[in-house]
Amino acid sequence: MRKNLNVIAAYSIMMGLIILVGIFQSWNIALSIFNLCLISAVMTMGANIQWGYAGLINFGIMGFTALGGLAAVLISVNPVQEAWSVGGANILLSLFLIIGIVLAVRFVLKKYQKTKIRNYVIAAIIISGIIIIRLVSEPGIEAIEEVNPARTGFLGGLGLPIIFSWIVGAFFAGGLAFVIGKVALGLRADYLAIATLLISEIVIAIIKHEDWLTRGVKNVIGLKRPAPYEVNLQQTDWFINLVEKFNSGKLALISDITERQAALNQFVIEGSSIFVKLCYSGLFLVVVIILLILTQKALYSPWGRMMRAIRDNEEAANAMGKNVVKQHLLIFVLGSAIVGIAGAMLVTQDGLFTPGSYRPLRYTFLIWVMVIVGGSGNNFGAILGGFVVWFLWIEAAPIGLYLVNLTTAGLDDTHFLKVHLIESVPYFRFLMMGIGLLLIMRYRPKGILPEKIEIK
Amino acid sequence: MDFINAIILILNYIFVPALAYGSQLALGAIFVTLIYGILRFANFATGDMMSFGTMFVILFTWYLQSYGISFGVLPTALLAIPFAIIFMVSYMLIIDKFVFKYYRTNKSPPVQLAMVSIGVMFVTQAVVRIVIGPSDRRFFDGEKFLIKAGEFKEMTGLNEGLAIKSTQVITIIVTLILVSTLFWFLNKTKTGKSMRAYSDNEDLALLSGIDPKKIVMITWVIAGILATIGGTLYGLDKSFKPFTYFNNMLPIFAAAIVGGIGNPFGAFLGGYVIAFSEILLTYAYKKFFMYILPESMEPDGLIQLLSTDYKFAVSFSILVIVLLYRPSGIFKGKVL
User: Fold this and answer.
1) Is A456 a domain residue?
2) Together in a domain, A17 and A114
3) pLDDT per position as a tens digit, B104-162
4) B130 vs A57: CB contact, 8 Å cut-off?
5) B250, A437: Cβ pair inside 8 Å?
6) Contacts of B133 in chain A (CB under 8 A)
7) pLDDT tens, A88-105?
8) How confident is the model at residue B336 (pLDDT cuts 50, 70, 90)?
9) Which domain holds residue A135?
10) At residue A3, does pLDDT exceed 70?
11) Which residue among B102, B110, B122 sits closest to A430, beta carbon to beta carbon?
12) Residue B299 touches chain A, beta carbons under 8 Å
């Protein structure tokens, strides 16, 4: 108990802050911050597994998040029958061709010695394959994109409940991580960082511009929900009764019946959106807790010890007979899969998929700030980092506004400096993140909750 | 005649723009490579440092313009560059003193320095956005075209016009002057040689009496100059927007690594490799083939290898391929 005092203290302060937001701003805002904190926590856990456990640097978090989001679309949207009938065959054929190319390249790689000729053959297979695929898929893609472009214009998905996408998203992200890992894990740390950053940009470019698959920048809106809709809730009897019971004290103060009815309606509308957010919080919390238990178990298992050994001294671990390359690949896939889950959760919560919104600053660098600030190698630290940083990211604007007003109190309201500063309040979040990161790196390089190895 | 038309077409749409874009990338790539070679970390704040320098140039340009000072046919920004460089270099030295120095003296691993540079990136980005705002700004003035497409057509009687923007010419000339001065400095002067020695083998350089403080300072000064000028040239040619500058970091990194990181000359050429391949692979060659092929063989499609949406993806794919087959870059940088 004593040992975990700082963890408990840190988490209670964090929850206290969110509750304060609930009291002073609104419960709606507090809950949406809390939900995104939970999603960020899942992302940081994924990054923490890679960086904290194994020392692998992955700047491609944005790409895995986007793939998770893509999974949400492909699982939950109803299939567009018409699009399938006009272009489905071409797309399926292209898919087989891609598999064919991969197999052919593998065959050549396995069968023949490493020579110049082999390289040329592989290049020839890939280039001719790409040309054939373009010829095959082009008419199909055009046909698909012409099917009712304002509303669909893509193949759609499988029409399953969106919650399945959390698992599928993990597989998508894990699959991509497997390919990247095979290719890039041999690189030195900072090269790996740059390579993953650029690969994630390629992933985003594909998601943005392959309209037949993702609708691209036209966005997919109105995804299914695992939680009830507000509008339906507002008409359900048990919910209205619940809200009435909850607010009976306030309602009793109003004597006029019509006024009371109006107040009750107001409460029901507010309550419905809070209730929906609470449903999401519950779902996300379950995911976070399951992941936390699993990662904690893994950290203190023989496998976790081996990972730390590899992280701290690769050569020694290798000499002890541990397969460093294989373990690195495994942990890269696992961490990325967790990020994929978070990506699917994010799209589930928003109910829409907007490929244009994936930017490295928000989805890669911010997550890294979370990991570093929270404490790499410590799962509780990583989750806390997700909470603290996301909270500051959202609340930076109000805090910045307060600071600006405080420092320029002597100036006239129309003074150009004051107007300018108030206009640029949204950018104070970058300043806060940067200074926070620099201070933590300098004075507490292991994060708020540092890694702690207990030998049990 | 058709053949000449085809050549002019290629010059107009591929060669000149790629040369200008490549020069802008090359300056950024040399900046990255110098920091990597001498201070030994991947600087993720590259794009934002460039936008920081450009911001000063824009502010000084406005200041000069408010006094009615201009540079004739050339953009006023060229006059503002020296003042901006002073501010930029002092900013970099301050950042180095308060942020990077601590990790350097502690001999932290490069990854940690890269993380620190992310912190610097956030701060710089915030300062730029707070001071000048996130919107798109054009600060070009003076003569816009050196050769206009219409005039060229009249002059030569060809079907295809060749338009050369003055910013493109300025970019190429300034880059050439700057880069040749830099290479002269690195190869011929004593300080430059000691910089290269320090980059090559730190311990040996220290043993032979090279002052590391001086080397680091000079590196930041050169980096400041490169960042400011590179950023300004890009801004003059296209426009200034902090977000674009941040994104430009990615092709710049690609150029530096393709050229062999730590090798300034490689970085210089890497910029052009990236620029040319981006434009060559995403250009629609339909018109070109219409000129050189007989009428019966005219193509129906656009003859575009990749859609322009994948412009960035091209340079990143090149980078990945280079990393796989020649991790030290095409022109042999540090072996990593």
Assistant:
1) no
2) no
3) 999 888 888 999 999 999 999 999 999 998 888 888 887 888 888 788 888 877 777 78
4) no
5) no
6) 423-424
7) 888 889 899 999 998 998
8) very low
9) 80-155
10) no
11) B122
12) no
User: Would you tell me which residues 369-388 of chain A have a C-beta closer than 8 angstroms to some C-beta of chain B?
Assistant: 369, 372
Put simply, the answer to whether B316 touches A445 (Cβ < 8 Å) is no
For position B323, what pLDDT does the model report? 77
pLDDT digits (tens, 9 = 90+) for B227-282: 999 999 999 998 899 999 998 998 999 999 888 888 888 999 999 999 999 898 88
Which residue, among B115, B304, B322, B326, would best test binding to A if mutated, counting the most A CBs under 10 Å from its CB?
A: B115
User: How confident is the model over A188-200, as a mean pLDDT?
Assistant: 86
Domain boundary among A155, A183, A209: A155
Report the gap between the CA of A57 and the closest CA in chain B (Å): 8
Q: How much is the ipTM here?
A: 0.89
- Whichever domain contains B310, its CATH number is 1.10.3470
User: Cβ of A431 and B126 within 8 Å?
Assistant: yes
Residues A316 and A342 in one domain: yes
Report yes or no on A448 lying in a domain: no
If DSSP states are collapsed to H, E and C, what string results for chain A?
CCCCHHHHHHHHHHHHHHHHHHHHCCHHHHHHHHHHHHHHHHHHHHHHHHHHHCCCCCCCHHHHHHHHHHHHHHHHCCCCHHHHHHHHHHHHHHHHHHHHHHHHHHHHHHHCCCCHHHHHHHHHHHHHHHHHHHHHHHHHHHHHHHCCCCCCCCCCCCCCCCCHHHHHHHHHHHHHHHHHHHHHCCCCHHHHHHHHHHHHHHHHHHHHHCHHHHCHHHCECCCCCCCCCHHHHCCCHHHHHHHHHHCHHHHHHCCCHHHHHHHHHHHHHHHHHHHHHHHHHHHHHHHHHHHHHHHHHHHCCHHHHHHHHHHHCHHHHHHCCCCHHHHHHHHHHHHHHHHHHHHHHHHHHHCCECHHHCCHHHHHHHHHHHHHHHCCCCHHHHHHHHHHHHHHHHHHHHHHHHHHHHHCCCCCCCCHHHHHHHHCHHHHHHHHHHHHHHHHHHHCCCCCCCCCCCCC
Q: Which residues on B lie below 8 Å from A188 (Cβ)?
A: 336
The chain B residue lying nearest A188, using CA atoms, is B336
Q: What is the pTM of this model?
A: 0.91
Q: How many domains does chain B contain in total?
A: 1
Within 189-228 of A, beta carbons closer than 8 Å to B belong to 189-191, 193-195, 197-199, 201-202, 205-206, 208-209
Could you tell me the residue range of the domain that residue B51 belongs to? 2-325
